Amino acid sequence: MLLPILLCLALLCASAVAAVLAGRSDRTALLAGAGGCAVSCALGAAAAAAALADGTKSSLRARWPLPVGEVHVALDSLSSFFLLCVFVVSGLAAVYGAGYLRASIGRRRLAPALFFFNLLVASMAVVAIARDGILFLVAWEVMTLASFFLVTFENEREEVRRAGMTYLIASQIGVVFLFVLFAMLARSSGTYDFDRLGAAGLADTAFVLALAGFGTKAGFWPAHVWLPDAHPAAPSPVSALMSGVMIKMGIYGLLRTLTFLGPPPEWWGAALIVVGAVSGVAGVLHALAQHDLKRLLAYHSVENIGIIALGVGVGLLGQSRGNAAVAFLGYAGALLHVANHGLFKGLLFQGAGSVFHGTGTRDIESLGGLYRRMPVTATTFLAGSIAICGLPPLNGFVSEWLIYLGAFRGGAALPGGWGAWTLAAIPALALIGGLAAACFVKAFGVVFLGEPRTAAAANAHESGGAMRAPMVAGALLCLTIGLWPAAAVRLVAPAASLLANLPGAIPDVGPLGALTRVGAVLLALVLLLALLRRALLRGRDVSVGATWGCGYAAPGPRMQYTASSFAQPILALFAPVIHSRVDAKGPDGYFPAQARYEEHVGDMAGERLLVPATRRVVRALSRVHAIQQGRLQLYLVYIAATLVVLLVWQLVGSGR
Amino acid sequence: MAAALLLHLALLLLAPPLMLGVIGKTKAAFAGRQGPPLLQTYRDIAKLARKGAVYSRTTTWIFRAGPLVALAAVLCAGLVLPLASGASPLGFTGDVVAFAYLFGLARFFTMAAALDTGSSFEGMGASREAAFSALAEPALFLSMTILCVPAGSPTFSDAFRSLPWPAWGFAHPTYLAAALSLFAVLLAENSRIPVDDPATHLELTMIHEVMVLDHGGPDLAFVLYGSAVKLFVIGALLTHVLLPVPAAGGWRGAALLGGGEIALAALVGVVESVMARLRLPRVPQFLVGAAVLSAMGLAALVYRGAP
User: What is the ipTM of this complex?
Assistant: First the structure.
């Protein structure tokens, strides 16, 4: 089953090169790049699904010219599952991207973007199948660089360049932890081969390094700071790809590392539950404060990564206390949420891209009333919103339900007070769910419902077929998983039991058919009530009028409730936590001339934690500045001095 | 089996509007009035169902879907929760989570329908509902966790079966905490005093009522019926904590549930008669207080072992 995947990778690279060779002809480049990507993703998804279904492991080794490591790739259930996510979400994003970039034909060279897009997909696939530390890190760095060039696609804008730099710096700081991690593991086990990698006595350090390194990519709080800048800066198909699957490679890396580290001590699970709860709540609170639709979605990625971390934490605690059912439920919920988040977040970013495409703005406050103008985008965005809030009958509910189930079971069954940790996940998930619902009612309601607030919104137009099709497909996939969770859990089960270290037998998940039943009853009731209302209204007076303005005679679209006012009660409540500053001057006197209201919500982690910390490091290192004079002669002296020192050291060393 | 299903459906579909009647009568008794008849809500619903409808030209299908989805979701929650016995038509392992999230779905569509009208009043109501329900959610989950942990399963039927009798005595402070917290959630979720005043006449001060300002005719009938069902279903959850309904079972269980619900409705009426509603900035303290209460109950449960 490895061969078709490798063929897909070859096809991806070939189409990337073809896009570059097409060079000046953007139309040909688009066809070669996006078309090739879509086709190879379809093939790859089929191959990954087949590999998941038949469950055989396969591997391939080859030498390469580097002195360390080798080309060692393999497929197991965890790799196949992540490959499936990568290929499905990337395929949809590629089709969407073809439609999205068509507007830029003739205005901008598309070949580089198409090249890096395909390279990013290919590198994520290699990350998922690599079984050698060096190969893994090479693919990881290619992934980072390819996504950096995609983020900076519109590099004539200053904020895009800034966001790109932030992303690059954060990624490189993150990868330093990974270098140390793999060097340490390789030193203790004498190889970079994943099959023989282990962490005798160093497991705790390795876990912390993996949490920091992979957590930066995944966007755990407080290492998420690059995420809300990079996602809005990137073109929408790229945001869909990065948020949908690329940050999940951080989760993959963490899970893969956990398989080397042997039986986990309890505190790892507790640590992930804390990280998950903090990321989830902080992510959704910051999302509520955003006015930029894509920035809002980016913060929701932090929230969802938090939910995934809660699932992994429950799984780890179950595993360390030897409770197979709890471990399985936690891991299965986390993995299914990885897939679900890829689907609905891809869909939502594509919807945000369509809104931008149709109106030219991402500012929520200047939109409104888009439902009539963009019905397909609006309906699919609604599906994505319900799914991301974890509400039945869509897919987000299924994965959150699995994590809840694991947390409840863990609380009842895990001895020694560790059950309390899994119980802590329950109110965290509940609060995250409630706040997420508030946030998406705000985003969906203010953007798509009501009256248009500006001319741009009033003149909005629906996107083309190539952009609509992937959104519809994504929404249908969300609904399918929501209504037929048994099939989805069957896809996740092998990978979850691999993580939970369960040989063969998959524990009873609970009655997934019951979720189907509830969903079916719910839809049937809605249908029944709709028919009832139609019967009641038959022959009666149904008229259309203006919205009731409570007696006010001249309502205008600017009087509608804004996104800021909608979020204000919650933000006021959490103001100390999210570091929001209000600068307001109310109307004054009998004939008020002007009133002003400004609210700035910074990022707590960035402003209070990372910026001061960085400043301190820079200050501490400022003494080193003295040796940097920018003169060539001086640097030649340094080189010569270093050589002399090394020679002397060598001489003295050999003389002894 | 069929008889149990019929009993469940009959209770769920027919009983809820009576709760609003009982609340009205209690408040009237406190005010020294005669008050509307007990069955007034049934009449209101029947009257509204016979009317035509006016839709705002701003709205889309979301506005028309709001009352339908909200009613369907709370009815579904009522099918998940055991009523007169220890079992329910749609109950399953983990149904506690589905129960809470179905209310979330109802709320999502009610708030979206409110924003669909473009009215600033309705937007304001939706905003308050969003804030307060997000805070009520942890309180609800924490108190349900208290019920589920001793049973070892997040399932209503198991949780209710393992409840001691009487669960609310001082011998079981954790259940007392859960019951008080659930009562606070019941008041908040059903927009009763001290969180919201259902009888207020000023749009600026409303929460739930202002969200449904533009609904009329059958849609308003669905909204009214839906809020009665919601009160009944959350009331049933609280009644199960306080009274041994599953042990009685069948017709006696139904009678016990009905008695509990009526007492609860009367209690809500008493609260509404003797309290003023809280200022809006105070409401979060009320809800967070409820969450903290049940969190303390849960902590006591976890660290002292099963009750």
Answer: 0.96
